[in-house]
Specification:
The structure is a single chain. The N and C termini lie far apart (68 Å). The protein has seven helices and twelve strands. It has an eight-stranded antiparallel β-sheet with strand order 1-2-3-4-11-10-7-8. Strands 9-6-5-12 form a four-stranded antiparallel β-sheet, with no helix packed on it. By secondary structure, it is α+β, with helices and mostly antiparallel strands.
């Protein structure tokens, strides 16, 4: 019993074959069982028998080496939505800003995205460390860019449709406009962006997500809606317009695994206008952005107790 090419053998691929031979099955029958098994067929593991297929060994009373061991089955193939998210990320990196240390960040996320995609396509075991590294690299790159990320991905839109949402912006009181962008990428879910004429993009996410953000003058940020229950990373970013400085804080997780509903940044809001954003990486390869232009201590007196960055009601409805 041999092969005619290099074969990588690992448990549980060949353990049952050797077990059947050891317990006295004819070589031909043991090999036939192996070649027809899902493990051998799924891994293209091929062997041939030279000689008499009726030859057998003296039977031995051996326990099944795979008893209690669950055979590895390849996970379902990644969805078209996943591939579309990875394609969008690559295109955004290609068109993104590349100043200062950004090329290194772009190279890192490009490499980890390729490894992540290979794992999904090859059907390998889920590598938690690789997935976490990819999400972290993706978040690092997104937060290294202008956080109004629609300036980047908007160029890949095919059609734009105005949505009926006309909620007022609680930061400045002006009416917001929501639009759905259908991307020129096969399998991509349309993105919804809500824009305030004064505060810019206040909500940017897939159309089937429902999430909003509110802030208060004492540094508290509150999530409303349905945050991802697991498989996410998020970061708060402050971009100061006059000094061009940025501040970052990772958004913490609750004991249940989802993002905490409220988080207070560890430093007071800047005294000058700034862009406040919360960027969330979630799912296979998706991201959402919540943000607003926040005027800090210069906010109008009517906003002295609360400023809602999404234009949503206090309950997130």
């Amino acid at each position: 019993m041999t092969s005619w090419e290099i074969n990588i053998q690992r448990l549980p691929l060949t353990a049952r074959l050797f077990h059947n031979v050891a317990r006295g099955l004819p070589l031909g029958e043991a090999l036939a069982r192996h070649l027809s098994s899902p493990e051998a067929r799924g891994n293209y593991h091929k062997l041939c028998l030279i000689g008499d297929p009726a030859v057998r060994l003296e039977p031995l009373d051996l326990p099944d080496p795979l008893a209690g061991v669950q055979a590895f089955k390849k996970p379902p193939a990644p969805s078209s939505r996943c591939f579309a998210g990875l394609t969008l990320l690559r295109l955004m990196i290609l068109r993104g800003h590349s100043g200062e240390d950004r090329p290194a960040v772009a190279a890192r996320v490009t490499a980890s995205a390729a490894e992540y995609e290979a794992m999904l396509v090859e059907g390998r075991r889920h590598d938690v460390a690789l997935v976490d590294r990819f999400r972290g690299d993706m978040l690092d790159w997104l937060t290294s860019q202008d956080t109004m990320l629609s300036k980047n991905w908007g160029r890949f839109a095919d059609t734009i449709e105005a949505l009926p949402d006309k909620t007022p912006c609680s930061v400045c009181g002006r009416r917001t406009v929501a639009r759905a962008f259908v991307l020129r990428i096969a399998g991509a879910v349309p993105r919804r962006e809500t824009v305030c004429p004064s505060c810019g993009s206040v909500q940017d996410m897939p159309v089937d997500h429902d999430l909003s953000l509110s802030v208060t003058p004492d540094g508290w940020m509150h999530l409303h809606g349905s945050p991802p229950p697991s498989g996410w990373l998020a970061r708060v970013t402050i971009e100061r317009f006059f000094t061009r400085e940025t501040l970052h804080w990772d958004w913490p997780a609750a004991a249940t695994g989802e993002p905490v509903r409220s988080f207070q940044v560890p430093e007071p809001w800047p005294h000058v206008p700034f862009r406040l954003s919360l960027i969330i990486v979630h799912g296979d390869s998706e991201f959402s952005v919540l943000g607003c232009l926040y005027r800090g201590t210069l906010a109008p007196e009517g906003d002295a107790t609360r400023a809602n960055c999404s234009g949503a009601s206090p309950t997130g409805r």
